[in-house]
Amino acid sequence: MTAPASAPAGLLAVIDMQRVFADPDSPWGVPRFADAATGVRHLLPAFTGRTVFTRFLAPALPTGAWRAYYARWPFALQPPDAPLWRLADDFADRAGPTLDTETFGKWTPGLAARLAPGEPLVLAGVSTECCVLTTALAAADAGTEVLVVADACAGVDDRAHRETLRLLELYGPLVRVVTTGELGAGDLP
Predict the structure, then answer these.
(1) Which of 32, 43, 128, 133 is most buried, judging by how many CB atoms fall within 10 Å of its CB?
(2) Which helix (H) or strand (E) holds 85?
(3) What span, in angstroms and rounded, lies between the C-alpha atoms of 96 and 91?
């Protein structure tokens, strides 16, 4: 299947749509994960062949300030192949290329290399106030146009999600907050 003729420009980075965030019983469960997943599913056909998924992973041995972080969240100190780090079932078979990081921000040389010169980075996933935010700001600092798809993201709660989107709007025109409909992907299956 190819992207529609009116496909939006850019590379879609689907941030951390993993079981650890999908599971409502997880300490890191994102309450509106299913809503973000619906938005991501709407985007995928419009970005066929231009999508990368990311996964947050714990390091084998935390260093620096990460030691205190994982002292607070010891359940997460599991190897990369642990079930909690797998992509959520909705995406496991659709993922294609996947970039793994041990940091919140996903703007890495690996992600940057996937962008064509002048191509915008389109962000969706979880959580808005953490991994989406840090990825957006780092990419914008590098001079990349960033589009954050509000209805394809979710935060730890609705307030954090809304406030982060408002904060991201302050970075315009480097960062723009859009919807699946504004991208022309809202009506897709």
Answers:
(1) 128
(2) none
(3) 9
SS3 track for 102-150: CCCCCCCHHHHCCCCCCCCEEEEEECHHHHHHHHHHHHHHCCCCEEEEE
Q: What is the pTM of this model?
A: 0.93
Angle, CA of 28, 89 and 18, to the nearest 5°: 30
- pLDDT digits 0-9 by tens, 108-167: 999 999 999 999 999 999 999 999 999 999 999 999 999 999 999 999 999 999 999 999
* Residue (of 4, 1, 2) closest to 185 by Cα position: 4
What is the spatial distance between Cα 123 and Cα 83, in angstroms, rounded to a whole number? 24
Residue 136 has phi, psi (to 5 degrees) of -60, -50
CB-side exposure of 95: number of CA atoms within 13 Å? Answer: 20
Q: What is the tens place of the pLDDT at every residue in 61-85?
A: 999 999 999 999 999 999 999 999 9
* Planar angle of CA 145, 22, 159, nearest 5 degrees: 60
